[in-house]
Design goal:
Chain lengths: ~900, ~900
């Protein structure tokens, strides 16, 4: 059994592929050696040896001893030094390293090989006795702690005492005599606690360290770490024994960290620091100011040249920007570690695109490297990172749930009406509510940001704000909103109407006052990369947009049409002429309160021109692209005022008694509005509403068409549960549409389809598809009904379901990432059944999930035609759709490879 | 083409099988002729002739004329009379008759064949000229109206004038001269309006009548009737031409209607009336008192003997009790019509059982004949049918929805608390509420009946009352309930607390005062027949019962176990010691308001003994039978008081501030409680609740077992949506159960299963079945989620969905009769998938549908093991389950027969 893999002198027995066996560190050192990088020589004991150790009562395998001995010989030969040598002794580090990194969990021993003889050799070789004795005392200290588990305290006491005696302010001021004294004391402490002398035999030292590293695998903190991080199935830790190199050998030595490209911008230049005559820990300590690498180039062109060569080799080999640790000992460069470098989102784009252009990676690989989160972070404003942290801390008022990222500054207002009034005077406002409702949508729209005391990531405020990409914090429970006095109080502080506050939607933090905000700029590489994604993906990407403004925004973001235009927001808000919003509101309210079809029709006649104008605006914005318009969906009680004063206003306006209004509002109340009189049920009860909306759509379409604007209207019926129900409504839709077109003598291709948001519609999709020309999965409501979960109420228990430390039943919040198991099963069924009766049925998704990468992958897998999401998530969906293709291709390639590998039956 | 089928003299070309072709009447006459009953001779023109008539511009088929002529010859021969004979002319009736009866829709002409000559012949033959001329004038009148469409008015004027002239008080007093004068006038009117003389040629008369009957098929009223009644696919009407017989020929003639058994009790004796020297219309008019048939036997034993012989033949042939119309002319009996007789439910049972015992039908046929509705009507009390209709009308206050049938008399009270107080004083009360909630359940329990102003057939009040079989009227919208003044007002009348009212739950009517109520007695045949049903059925029938009282009741009704024992009602009401109910209520409320698991546990400890005692009671009542106990299901806010005063009471009792109680109650509010924090989600959040309930169940089981009471507990976890979720809870259940059993050193077999009431659970049933030992479909909630329909809110639009004259989307209310298409598809899937991972998984249903016959049939078809329903529906379910088997056998037999009939391929 081979337990030891050596590396050094340009050759290595291991490689990156043996990570399981050699651990991350051992495999990395072997790989770097193989590709010709200057790496200190050494060897790695496999994880199998560690596994053996624990399986056999902490005995190392018999073969290990001779193998280690041979490897040491090899190492001595490679370095030209010998263990315990009195002139230039070989020193090694002994390091742990599992296949998965467990930072800080396991043990390392440095400077191993020093003893009373070798310390003199080191003094001689370095011509620096103080360095040598300091190294020796560090070794004893580390060995005692790691191998013998002695308390650090006893050793530190000795150092303090010596420092005092020599009047040294810190360790660097302690002279060689001091360290000699410390070494002497350390050996004494060691003897007292262990009952034997500090081992002078380097081989004995080595075995002590190897065993200690093995043991550290089962140390309580390591076991706990693996449990918490759910790291399973590893054999154990490997042990790497590596020649020590010293950046603090002298003035021609040093150490540094560098990135192969700028991690902040992605620009293709070296980025990093170098500290002369210093060790790694000095860089981290930040006591001395390091040189930038440009300075290194000037001062030590030879060193720089070695480094630059290594950089090229690294990028070519690893195909990614690297974060490299290196040491120079006596002008010779050693690479100690390399790994993919962390970077800003902007740099991520630049690097991926540049790597592809430099042919280091394929375009698909470049696309695959960008994470959806990178795009998200690219778009949202942030609290100015240069702003004083101290001041920021002082200004902090409260924290809530970061529903929509970004940052927003404005004056606090507490009603939608005030928000609109202040905004109309040119003021920036933050709308603060206990919770929001569709009535507030006008005020929400004009606000810079939205803050609510209640609700979760899928509450009304969060969903509406996300659609607009508007900074929003919800569930800020410490907030007490006092509508009566128009103020909020929180943790003893009060914010009155008009006071400035700042929201940090990235972190979910609320600040008092105006905190400076930085706006992001889109890097050129972003556009290049998303262009590549578009070439790869098969799913269409549309947007959910209810206003011309949103539609334009979404087009800029790359949307290929509107997948969901909700018409009800138009009932509340005139997005083009906000001052006329009240007219619409009264008309819709009058319609709702009407007691006869005639009165209802009169009120609807008032609404018709408003809706027509809205549709014209949207059609113009989406010129040449399809627009799916959903007929009115929410229950009517969402449109009527619930406050006595506003009820009085309404009563006066439409000429009825306030009691009548109050009574009707009360009658509209529902026990479970989510399952109530809404969606197409409204159109079954009040066909006039559907007729008005369809008329508005097609009159708008005709108007556009006559002016040369290409329109592709798709009328979408919400909340269908039955073929006959849908048939009645599609018939009515076609009747009105064809009537409008005939009267205008116009020809416009249009389709009539439905949302699939109830299990019954999904179950009976074959029949539904006989009348629906397209399906759009409304996965918000479908999730609610399939799981029996109210979005508005789930906040009370769903966190326990998702939290792994609680019940941990679901991997993610099903309202954020589609429940592919349950809801997904029904979606697959519905698509298959739908296409069984209507070949090539167009299928999309328009729930919140349309912008969630995991959900987009699912939509690709089940063969949807498109996803639709809020404008700001369109780029994410474009990327995720490309990822889905790439992953699928990889799976297929793997499948093919797997098939090839299968043995042929004889 | 054969268009005419003759019958008479014991032979008939047609039979009952030719109903499509000969119409109901024609086929019936042919059939009766065939089986040797004395039927007047005649012939029937087929519906195909009618269809031809309308397809060919109202031309009769060429072959028809000679066929009719031949049939007339045949008829003359059979009767020994001739058309238009001057001595004893043949008279016929010409009648319409389609395959499906359309009462009152189509035309008949009687006495056809009379003319100026024949009328003398008839005078002579009857020796009654007055009779002859009266018949002639009737003929002219009818012919004019039916064939020539003349206004009846003109003819009636003539009669009035003649009556006046002869001083006759009514038509019977008009002498022969009068009728002769009328005939003369009639002919004149006829000539004036038609421009030709009244036809004297009987054949011309006949053709006029035949064509008129054809035409009546397309008369507006008939077309409308068929549209409304959804009668489709008929060819047209047949025309039967039948020899006239006259019950008013003389004293040895008469007419009557009889039932072959007593339609009220089912006793096997003749039941009916005979009117001497009279025609059918005289019986209906009720002017003269008819003889009971027993009297006929005495007076005219010969006639009676003929009748009795016919009766036996009819029952033997038709295998059912018959309702027979007959006429005797000159001592000769003619059967004019026979059909299955309508009967009371009690008679239905008696007759079915007697027929089986008499070997006239098989037992299965007897069971098949009883309709579920028959059982229902057998059980509920009724308003005394002998009570004066006039008084009843005066007492009527309002009408509502007849949610639970029966009748109830009591004093009106307006709160559950008052109901309990009055009841504890021995008063009978009717609980009147705007709506009810679980808090009211105690008051509902003690009330005689329940009346609410709002809600539908599946509102809280209706569902709870149905479970108890307690008379309940809901949605009585005219009612204005004034809690402040403790009274209701309706249509200007006021009922104060303590005033008597009466509910008629059968009709949904509310009366002022005490109306006498009659209680039903179960006939012996009921028990016999349900015993037969039990032998036939394969589905088990269990009951939904929450109290020992209900459990005992259900056992009497034939329940074979409890399929659903809801534990939450126990939280409100101590059914054995009502005066202690408050203790439980406070304990549960304290538990809900608790802020720590410890405080919650303390409150639960108080509840434990109550629940244990309840379970002991139920186990004892169901001794030897399985009991499925569902852990707590409703959202917690249903358990806390919402009125300020009761909140204050609670606060005082548990030692917190009223504000605290109010705040917690407010916090518990949910936007969509149906989809909120309820069911097993409560147990995920508060495992203590589950632990207490399971402990109570098994401590009770141990207690019973030790006393020799056999127990089979089945613990049921509600609202599951995920295997892992269920796994956590089944594990917890077993842990507590096994702990209790171990400590008591007892061995009790138990199972742990789940309700399937969310689509996700049904979709993933294969996984769920890996942890659930049984499934019970909670079809109330499953219907709500699959269809996205809130039971509480659907009343606003669902009626339009079910009403055929509105949208007519569903055949039945899906909360009453299972939506087998949609919900049913999911149920089939879940059973199949569930049994794929757990062979022989026990599956039942415990929603409201378990007692609905159509739903029971579905449960049988999909292979469930049992249905569970409220105690009063248990007999219905037993019957329906037997019907399902019988229908299945019939379908299979038909399939086999069909297979046999298929031609063998050569």
């Amino acid at each position: 059994m081979k337990y030891v893999y050596v590396f050094g002198g340009g050759k290595a027995e291991g490689s990156a592929a043996l990570r399981e066996l050699l651990g991350g560190k051992g495999a990395g050192l072997a790989e770097m050696t193989r590709i010709g990088l200057p790496v200190p020589a050494g060897f790695t004991i496999t994880t199998e040896a560690c596994a053996y150790y624990f399986k056999h009562k902490q005995q190392v395998p018999r073969e290990l001893t001779p193998q280690v001995r041979a490897a040491m010989k090899h190492l001595e030969k490679a370095t030209g030094k010998r263990f315990g040598d009195r002139r230039d002794p070989l020193l090694v580090s002994v390091r742990s390293g599992a296949a998965i990194s467990m930072p800080g969990m396991m043990e390392t021993v440095l400077n191993l090989g020093l003893n009373d003889t070798a310390v003199s050799g080191l003094s001689e070789a370095t011509a620096n006795p103080r360095f040598a004795w300091d190294a020796y005392r560090r070794f004893i200290q580390m060995y005692s702690s790691v191998v013998e588990n002695l308390a650090k305290h006893d050793f530190e006491e000795q150092i303090t005492a010596t420092r005092k005696r020599f009047g040294a302010a810190d360790d660097t001021k302690v002279p060689v005599e001091g360290w000699q004294e410390v070494v002497s004391h350390f050996k004494q402490v060691y003897r007292e606690h262990t009952g034997h002398d500090f081992p002078q035999d380097p081989e004995e030292q080595l075995w002590g360290a190897i065993r200690a590293v093995f043991r550290s695998w089962m140390a309580e903190k390591a076991v706990t770490y693996r449990r918490v991080e759910k790291i399973n199935g590893l054999l154990g830790t490997a042990v790497s024994v590596v020649q020590m190199v010293f950046g603090n050998w002298g003035e021609d030595s040093g150490t540094g960290v560098c990135f192969t490209r700028d991690p902040s911008t992605g620009e293709p230049h070296f980025y990093g620091d170098f500290l002369q005559n210093a060790q790694g820990e000095d860089v981290v300590a930040g006591i001395r100011t390091p040189l930038p690498l440009s300075e290194l180039k000037k001062r030590f062109p030879e060193m720089y040249a070695q480094l630059d060569q290594a950089r090229k080799r690294l990028e070519k080999h690893y195909h990614d920007m690297q974060d490299v640790e290196f040491t120079v000992q006596q002008r010779k460069l050693y690479i100690l570690q390399t790994r993919s470098g962390k970077r800003t989102p902007a740099a991520a784009f630049r690097i991926a695109v540049d790597f592809a252009k430099e042919k280091l990676i394929a375009r698909k690989e470049a696309v695959a490297r960008i994470k959806p989160h990178d795009i998200e972070r690219l778009f949202y404003p942030v609290i100015d990172p240069d702003f004083s942290q101290e001041k920021l801390e002082k200004a902090k008022l409260a924290s809530g749930i970061n529903a929509v990222p970004g940052a927003a500054v404005g004056r606090a207002v507490f009603t939608a009406q005030e928000a609109e009034e202040w905004a109309s005077r040119g003021e920036k406002v933050i709308l603060v509510r206990r919770e929001t409702s569709p009535e507030d949508v006008g005020g929400m729209y004009v606000a810079q940001g939205i803050l609510t005391a209640t609700g979760g990531k899928t509450s009304h405020a969060a969903v509406v704000a996300r659609g607009w990409g508007k900074c929003c914090i919800v569930g800020c429970e410490a907030l007490q909103v006092d509508y009566g006095n128009q103020r909020l109080s929180v943790n003893g502080r009060t914010v009155a109407q008009g006071d400035w506050i700042t929201l940090d939607g990235n972190e979910g933090l609320v600040y008092e006052g105006q905190i400076p905000v930085a706006m992001p700029r889109l890097p050129g590489a972003y556009f290049t990369l998303l262009g590549w994604a578009d070439e790869i993906r098969k799913l269409g990407v549309r947007t959910n947009a209810d206003t011309p403004h949103d539609a334009r925004k979404a087009r800029e973001m790359g949307a290929e049409g509107i997948g969901l235009c909700r018409t009800e927001h138009m009932f509340f808000k005139d997005f083009e002429q906000p001052e006329r919003s009240a007219d619409r509101q009264f008309a819709i309210q009058e319609m709702i309160l009407a007691e006869t079809p005639e009165a209802r029709r009169r009120a609807l006649d008032k609404l018709l021109p408003f809706q027509r104008r809205d549709f014209i605006g949207i059609f113009e914005a989406m010129k040449g692209l399809p627009v799916t318009i959903r007929l009115v969906d929410p229950p009517l009680h969402e449109f009527v005022p619930h406050e006595a004063e506003r009820q009085r206003e309404l009563a006066e306006k439409i000429g009825v008694s306030a009691e009548f209004v109050a009574k009707r509002v009360e009658q509209l109340h529902e026990a479970n509005p989510m399952l109530g009189h809404r969606g197409c049920r409204l159109a079954i009860t009040y066909p006039e509403i559907l007729e008005m909306q369809v008329r508005a759509i097609f009159e708008a379409a005709v108007d556009c068409k006559k002016r040369g604007v290409q329109v592709f209207p798709e009328v979408m019926i919400p909340l269908t549960m039955d073929k006959k129900e849908l048939g009645i409504l599609t018939d009515a839709t076609r009747r009105v549409a064809d009537d409008v077109l005939k009267q205008a003598n116009a020809k416009i291709n249009y389709t009539v389809g439905t949302m699939i948001e109830l299990p019954r519609a999904a179950l009976l999709a074959d029949r539904i598809a006989e009348v629906a020309e397209f399906f759009s999965f409304g996965t918000n409501d479908l999730t609610q009904t399939v799981m029996g979960l109210s979005r508005d109420d789930a906040g009370r228990f769903l966190p326990d379901y998702v939290n792994e430390n609680k019940a941990g039943i679901f991997k993610a919040d099903p309202f954020q990432s589609l429940d592919t198991e349950g809801v997904g099963l029904l979606i697959r069924w519905a698509i298959e059944r739908g296409r069984s009766t209507r070949r090539g049925l167009k299928v999309g998704i328009c729930g919140e999930h349309g912008g969630d990468p995991d959900s987009v992958r699912f939509c690709h897998e089940v063969g949807m035609n498109y996803v639709s999401c809020s404008p700001f998530r369109v780029p994410i969906a474009r990327l995720a759709a490309a990822h889905a293709v790439i992953e699928e291709e990889k799976r297929k390639a793997k499948g093919r490879a797997g098939a090839k590998e299968r043995p042929v039956a004889q």
